[in-house]
Design goal:
The structure is a single chain. Strand 7 and strand 8 (about 75-80) form a beta hairpin. The strands form two sheets. Strands 2, 4, 5, 6, 9, 10 and 11 form a seven-stranded mixed beta sheet that branches. Strands 1-3-8-7 form a four-stranded antiparallel beta sheet, with no helix packed on it. It is globular and about 45 Å long. It has strands spanning about 5, 10, 20-25, 35-40, 45-50, 55-60, 65-70, 75-80, 90-100, 105-110, 110-115. It has about 120 residues and is an all-beta fold.
């Protein structure tokens, strides 16, 4: 079955950096849309960044210029490089895959906690 496993979260001071990784398995991800979402306590889950199989990217305005999403098509990996982190970036970050064809649907990882605090 389709699995997404995130890693790389943790505690970081304001202004610091983290790199999140998402390992995807169990399907053909070639034509997929991959994304990172986050959910802070008491808030709705929001899309942070997405990337197509052609490496076209989109970002929520609040992270533009600070976060970079990338993917390794050969190894079915997706990354989120987060720089200049702010306390308001604190949230659980989820990897998402949107697939078409045989395994069509939206798939989610279990999430990884990112805490930005001094």
């Amino acid at each position: 079955q389709v699995q997404l496993v995130e890693s790389g979260g943790g505690l970081v001071q304001p202004g610091g950096s983290l790199r999140l990784s998402c390992a995807a398995s169990g399907a053909d991800f070639y034509g997929s849309l991959m994304g990172w979402h986050r959910q802070a306590p008491g808030k709705q889950r929001e899309l942070v960044a997405s990337i197509t199989s052609n490496h076209l990217t989109r970002y929520v305005d609040s992270v533009k210029g600070r976060f970079t999403i990338s993917r390794d098509m050969a190894n079915d990996m997706v990354y989120l490089q987060m720089n200049s982190l702010k306390p308001e970036d604190t949230a659980v970050y989820f990897c998402n895959a949107r697939l078409w064809g045989r395994d069509s649907g939206d798939y989610w990882g279990q999430g990884t906690q990112v805490t930005v605090s001094s």
